[in-house]
Amino acid sequence: MSSIWLDLENKTTEFLELGLDKVINFEKFNRIAIVHHSSAIEGSSLTYEETALLIDEDITSKGKPMNDHLMVNDHYKALLFTLQKAAEKNSIEPEFLKQINSIVNQNSGKIYNTDLGIYDVTKGNFPLGNVTAGTTSLINHDKVVGMVEELCAKLDKKLNVLSDL
After folding, report:
1. How does pLDDT run across 45-78, given as a tens digit for each residue?
2. Less Cβ around it within 10 Å: N or C end of the chain?
3. Adjacent-strand bridge partners of 119
4. Please, which residues bridge with residue 120 across strands?
């Protein structure tokens, strides 16, 4: 056994002996962290603690925009949906990604009117215009569908290989 695997095994044993898995619900912590970071990337001003209160107890934060709360709830619903589909071992296809996109944007998404037409992100539609994240320009909109299809095919192939192990 390589030293990396031996070290990992020792750390796992040490972790279990400390009983930390009984003190902290890591699955819950990770779900909240994923939702918090994902929605923060999209502009939500909620802190980790405010995100946790909203998810756990449906408590909104005073002075924070309602759209930020809607965004967090949408991200959480999308995460639960994705985890459920992963447990069911559903294949990854563009329509599946559109479903996730639709849930992520259900209450906080917008309808965009571009030179190429109208698209509604609450329906999971892919963009009909170029997208930026801050100062970074993302791929040209006319390449999105082809690249999504390619990504889905590669991911699905990898998942099938892993499920055969």
Report:
1. 999 999 999 999 999 999 999 999 999 999 999 9
2. C
3. 112
4. 111
Q: Which domain holds residue 159?
A: 91-165
What does the DSSP assignment read for 8-49? HHHHHHHHHHHTHHHHS-HHHHHHHHHHHHHHHHTT----HH
Q: What is the mean pLDDT of residues 142-146?
A: 90
Confidence of residue 141 (pLDDT cuts 50, 70, 90): confident
Residue 109 above 90 pLDDT?
no
Token pair for residue 152?
């889905």
19: left (phi over 0), alpha (psi -120 to 50) or beta: left
Pairing of strands 132-133, 111-114: unpaired
Domain boundary among the residues 62, 88, 114 is at 88
Alpha-carbon distance 48 to 72, whole Å?
11
Residues contacting residue 148 through CB under 8 Å, at least 6 positions apart: 94, 97, 126
106 and 141 inside one domain: yes
State pTM to two decimals.
0.81
